[in-house]
Design brief:
The protein is of the alpha/beta class and 106 residues long. The chain has three helices and five strands. Strands 1-3-5 form a three-stranded parallel β-sheet. It has a two-stranded parallel sheet with strand order 2-4. The longest helix has 17 residues. The protein is globular, with a radius of gyration of 13 Å. It comes from Novosphingobium rhizovicinum. This is STAS domain-containing protein. Pfam families: STAS_2. InterPro entries: MlaB-like_STAS, STAS_dom_sf.
Amino acid sequence: MNSSLPTDPSEDRTLILPARGNTVAAEDLKVRLVLAADLDDEIRIDASQVESVGQCVLQLLVAARAEAEQKSLEFEITNPSPAFVERVAGCGLAETLGLETGKDHP
């Protein structure tokens, strides 16, 4: 089986959200989130490249955070772009996703 996942556990396995988080991107993200929840002791997501994020991706992130809590895994969204923060806050999901919004973010 050919896998794009790193085989060395010391490698960074942060999931990087795409610039455009649409329905098509959500399909790939779903698979990667399931693998992270099953194989890793944490789910770390880099949101630095996000220019827009759709409902499907937001739903997956909410579900992944709930799954992480259920399995006692760490869940962290790192380097959120201003567009990501704005969308998450606008949807009232900042607290649900554990995203801090303050003076550094809109």
